Amino acid sequence: MAAGLATAGVLAAPAATASGRTQIQVQDRCDPVTFDAALGAGSCVSTRDGTVTFAAFLARANPHDGGHGAWNFSRKDTHIDRGEALHVSNTGGEVHSFTEVSRFGTVGIAPLDAALPDGTPAALPIGDPATTFLPPGAALDVAGLSPGVHTFQCLIHPWMRTTVEVRG
Ligand SMILES: [Cu+2]
């Protein structure tokens, strides 16, 4: 099922009221000075929790640590009722994606894929991932998920993952 940007039509659906949305925060703690020095100006915007240097971040990109834990989705596992939407907001300082995949896996960015065990296959996005990228401060609603289990990961930081069970 496609994960799309919020539209007025989606939000007008009776089951997708504000109280019927599950909130997921997309989080990181990037330090703007060292991240911008390594990746280019504007790679990391300043946030209150932006205290992890680029070197400290990269040091966790190995299979033992599985990626820096401050880069995460606020819910690892959650369940919603059919017709309920996920409200996903990026409260971190970097761009992330919240992309439905049929298989968790690597993203094609070698220094970050290094967080996964050797030989991990590529992630398999469902649909067009272009609409699932979130700049800092951005949000999207994921609505219309079919009953069953749906898996989402960041296509930049492959250890950022969540599993959502939709109850029919
Ligand atoms: Cu990410």
Secondary-structure element pattern, one letter each: HEHHEEEEEHEEEEE
**Globular, elongated, flat, extended or rod-shaped: what is the shape?**
globular
Let me know the CATH homologous superfamily.
Cupredoxins -  blue copper proteins
The overall strand count is 11
Measured as a percent range, the helix fraction is 10-25%
Low-confidence stretches are: 1-18
CATH fold label:
Immunoglobulin-like
Q: Compounds present?
A: copper (II) ion
Gap between N and C termini = 15 Å
What is this structure's SSE topology?
Blueprint: H1 8-12, E1 21-27, H2 32-39, H3 54-59, E2 72-73, E3 77-81, E4 85-90, E5 96-97, E6 99-103, H4 110-113, E7 124-125, E8 133-134, E9 139-142, E10 148-153, E11 161-167
Bound molecules: copper (II) ion.
Task: Describe the protein's architecture and organization.
The protein has about 170 residues and is of the alpha+beta class. The chain has a single domain, classed as Immunoglobulin-like, CATH 2.60.40.420. Helix content is about 15%, strand content about 30%. The chain contains four helices and eleven strands, in the order αβααβββββαβββββ. It has a five-stranded mixed beta sheet, with no helix packed on it. Strands 2-1-4-9 form a four-stranded mixed beta sheet, with no helix packed on it. The longest helix has 8 residues, at about 30-40. It starts with 7 loop residues before the first helix and ends with a strand. About 35% of the residues are buried. It binds copper (II) ion (CU). Copper (II) ion binds near residues 154 and 160.
